[in-house]
Amino acid sequence: MTDRWALAPAEDGGVEVAALGPDGLPAGPVRWEADLAAAVRGRPEVARWVWRSTAEVYPRLLAAGVRVERCYDIEDAETLLLGHAGRYGEPRSAAAALARLRGGPVPPDPPQRAAEPGSQSPLFEPQSVHLPLTDLVEVYADQQRRHDTTAHPDRMRLLTAAESAGMLVAAEMNRAGLPWSAETHRRVLHELLGERYAGGGEPRRLAELADQVSEAFGRRVRPDLPADVIKAFAQAGIKVKSTRRWEIESVDHPAVKPLVEYKKLYRIWVAHGWSWLQDWVRDGRFRPEFLAGGTVTGRWVTNGGGALQIPKVIRRAVVADPGWRLVVADADQMEPRVLAAISRDPGLMEVAGRETDLYQAVSDRAFSGDRGQAKLAVLGAVYGQTSGDGLKNLAALRRRFPKAVAYVDDAARAGEEGRLVRTWLGRTCPPAAGAGDAEEAGIPQDDPVERPVEDGWGPGYASTNTRARGRFARNFVVQGSAADWTLLLLAALRQACARMSAELVFFQHDEVIVHCPEEETEAVVAAIGEASELAGRLTFGETPVRFPFTTAVVECYADAK
DNA sequence: AGTTTCGGCGCC
DNA sequence: AAAGGGCGCCGAAACT
């Protein structure tokens, strides 16, 4: 057996490697070699590298020009397996897993570092959690057995493999960076904000708008200070609770227009302005750090530069290299299609089995052709909307697609009752009570005192936070299963790109960008379709549900929509 | 002075 | 009466 090998960087700068047998333990001697990259490059026959942490190892390999086909990230798998067992808050390092296995004291996880501009930070400090290879594979072999004890072992194995693949994608995207024209960015900033003044103060346009706000109030008001703005409105006889745009816009006062404009531009200035450009763009690329599986739902996060929140106007600066193109691919109505696949609702599967607009088809069946109402209803069901037209629309949706609505209702009830909720592949939502990580991860906790409530769901005893947990769980099964599917999609697309010059440069929940030579765009578009088909089949098994993409071949990201 | 939380808003 | 999920980022405010 030479298909699986384990690898462990040694403290002396070398690396330990060993072929693994069927039981996950070394099938032969553990060898020490001086050069990590050479050890991997010299073994092209290895189908999967087993290592502690992709973030520790793979950037070093990529820096040496070495790519791997597949890997297995032990600490990521530990996180998923602990979660599946309902032990969400326990330390997830390989050292902790080994200690649990051997019954020793379990070390806490090392703290994570915040991202700094221009530097890439591994998830764990590598040196503080080093394990020799023989210890590491002991954890690995145990994890293989633990997969078998899960509700769906095949799915769980697919999940850990898929997320490891996601980590390879993330590391490669971090290395590639997103093509970025600093010159275009500066031009956009100048058009929106006007000239910069010496000393780093507000640019001209913001200063003008601040003056207009002050003039409207009849005194000096700083529009970037909510407390100041609220006070100024109060003095004008208008009570506002906050300075949120939707609240301010309902007020009739001459300060509103310049204030709203100020806030919009201020946001661009502080979050994506000249200092952002200075911090995050080097050599024509924006280099955030993508982190696969950074959230409990499995969605990715980024560290640095707000890469998942690039404002539409700033996307003008994302420009392909000369002779190259951006293939921008957006999954159409991903969440309702995923709901169809996981709930097996016959009506919704039928609708999601076509590649045409899903919301239109839903509205034809349940909302007399009103697409907007249909979309609100579907999203309301997924997000747990409880007010306004949501309840009325939800009733119509429930009549026509009962299994789909029941699926998210069941998840919500499980969440409220503190039971575990899982995605299709087995990623598990932290329970509300007892898990130290749950609160830290943003899961609403129990209120000290539960109080009775009456609402559209009938009378009952449920705290605000209990309800919030229900909504969280409701959304979790859909958003998380969608994340399961996108991992398989990315893995397939990555392999296709590797057969060309194409590079994956951006991923945002349901949207990918591939940067490739002009002559490869057709092949990339085809590869996206094939990857989607494969991901759907691998993730959900035999299902009529289709996952179509809208693709655009452009030189500039802003032209994609 | 340094660190954490808040308010607001960007994206999906 | 209010009642939508997930994130990151910034400066200011609030804390130690």
Automatic annotation (TrEMBL):
Listed EC numbers: 2.7.7.7
InterPro entries, sorted: DNA-dir_DNA_pol_A_palm_dom (IPR001098), DNA/RNA_pol_sf (IPR043502), DNA_polymerase_A (IPR002298)
Matching Pfam families: DNA_pol_A
The entry's keywords: DNA replication, Exonuclease, Hydrolase, Nuclease
Residue ranges, annotated region (Disordered): 101-123, 433-460
Domain DNA-directed DNA polymerase family A palm: 311-520
Catalytic reactions on record: DNA(n) + a 2'-deoxyribonucleoside 5'-triphosphate = DNA(n+1) + diphosphate
Highest taxon of source: Bacteria
One Gene Ontology molecular-function label: exonuclease activity
Protein name: DNA-directed DNA polymerase
Organism: Streptomyces canus
